[in-house]
Amino acid sequence: MCTLEKRGDIFHLTLTGDDEHRFHPDTITSVLSLLEQAKSQSTKGSVLITTGHGKFFSNGFDLAWAQSAGHGAIERMHQMVKSFKPVLAALLDLPMPTIAALNGHAAASGLMFALSHDYVFMRKDRGVLYMSEVDIGLPVPDYFSALVVAKVGSGIARRELLLSGKKLKGEDAVALGIVDSAAHDSAEGVVEATVSLGQSLAAKKWNGEVYASIRRSLYPELCRMLELTANNLATHNL
Amino acid sequence: MCSLEKRDRLFILKLTGDGEHRLNPNLLDSLRSTINQIRSDPSSSQSVLITTSDGKFFSNGYDLALAESNPSLSVVMDAKLRSLVADLISLPMPTIAAVTGHASAAGCILAMSHDYVLMRRDRGFLYMSELDIELIVPAWFMAVIKGKIGSPAARRDVMLTAAKVTADVGVKMGIVDSAYGSATETVEAAIKLGEEIVQRGGDGHVYGKMRESLLREVLIHTIGEYESGSSVVRSTGSKL
């Protein structure tokens, strides 16, 4: 399902297996627990890189699991939406720089998972970003929109991402300012590039608590929605 | 500390001397009282402010050594800079920072609190150093950063990599308006820009009000939700 491995300064969080890495209550619990593990083992200079195996980074929530409950489908959807919030909160709060290395497609909550990282690298040759909700008739949770607004600056880019139902390839995503890079032609290429970035960030040996605090203060509305207190120590820290 | 020169309709405020122009209580008081002087000048609403500095530094931020020796002074410096920035935002005239040296942390915030940022490209950088020196960034600094840097990726680079932003990079990031070959050229360009703005005419009071409304979030964080920058009585000098 997912693994956490430490190599040097870098924690590698990997969504394993050749499936769509959909978020289901069990995956959500696993990812959350691995993020907590990374947090507890973090030191100055720690960095997180998240990637996946196969064609998908993550294709969103496990809608089939929700639908298999018949009348209980809506309840299951609510459950997943609610329990996913702490995953994004954990990423926003992680005391180290975070990098998403997209091996493949990222859709809906899978895309939100990616966007919750400080840096997002995509492949040039394969993989799209897709907010599928508008096509399948699902409303987008408020904290998803807050994340998009926090991370994507241009009105046009926000519209393309949230309202157009477009499948955005790497180069489009870079042009729209949604991801940082789509320069590499394979999953290995992307991972290599993120490791290189990760190592240069690790070399700064930043204090993770300070890093997380500054990150939270960069996204105050999003943090409020995720129930993370933005930095409150306003005046007394010069 | 700081000097004020008037050239026609240009007020040239300079952080003087070869030091780091650390924003200690004295310098902050001096800057505020000079801004007040400018505000109460009869020609103020048809004028332009240019802020620049001597030496290697625009300003290297708060006086941290002072804060360490007397922790209550951090609160004082923070409050005085908030008031100064609110004063700049409500000032009834366009403002230009001619950045001819390093501007770090609070010093960078001060530079960015001007409407135009012109900077030399041969030396010096804008540097939000807090991550490197393990300081937390106050919410009001973030409001300035958010109000002046439009791209989320650029804000991330500035705040979460503690980037040392040289003028040309600053132009690309949308933080700096234009870059020049030397300190002298930067100041000359600021004067030329100031003169062009003066030529355009217009009512500084209206300008000031519009700027306040554009930077409302910053004002909320510096002086509070219900006060208007220009309506708070400032003729008494220090608000603290």
Automatic annotation (TrEMBL), chain A:
Pathway membership: Lipid metabolism; fatty acid beta-oxidation
Keywords: Fatty acid metabolism, Isomerase, Lipid metabolism
Top-tier EC class: isomerase
Reactions catalysed: a (3E)-enoyl-CoA = a 4-saturated (2E)-enoyl-CoA; a (3Z)-enoyl-CoA = a 4-saturated (2E)-enoyl-CoA
GO biological process: fatty acid beta-oxidation
Pfam families on file: ECH_1
Record keyword Nucleotide-binding present: no
Cross-referenced CDD domains: crotonase-like
Enzyme Commission number: 5.3.3.8
Secretion signal, residue range per the UniProt entry: none
InterPro entries: Enoyl-CoA_hydra/iso
Molecular function terms from GO: delta(3)-delta(2)-enoyl-CoA isomerase activity
Gene Ontology cellular-component annotations: peroxisome
Family: Belongs to the enoyl-CoA hydratase/isomerase family.
Name assigned to this protein: Delta(3)-Delta(2)-enoyl-CoA isomerase
Annotated organism of origin: Arabidopsis suecica (Swedish thale-cress)
TrEMBL record, chain B:
Keywords (A to Z) from UniProt: Fatty acid metabolism, Isomerase, Lipid metabolism
CDD domains: crotonase-like
Pathway assignment: Lipid metabolism; fatty acid beta-oxidation
Membrane-traversing stretches: none
Reactions catalysed, as given in the entry: a (3Z)-enoyl-CoA = a 4-saturated (2E)-enoyl-CoA; a (3E)-enoyl-CoA = a 4-saturated (2E)-enoyl-CoA
Record EC number: 5.3.3.8
The organism's place on the tree of life at top rank: Eukaryota
GO biological process: fatty acid beta-oxidation
Presence of the UniProt keyword Isomerase in the record: yes
EC class (word): isomerase
One Gene Ontology cellular component annotation held by this UniProt entry: peroxisome
Family recorded in the similarity comment: Belongs to the enoyl-CoA hydratase/isomerase family.
Protein known as: Delta(3)-Delta(2)-enoyl-CoA isomerase
UniProt source species: Arabidopsis suecica
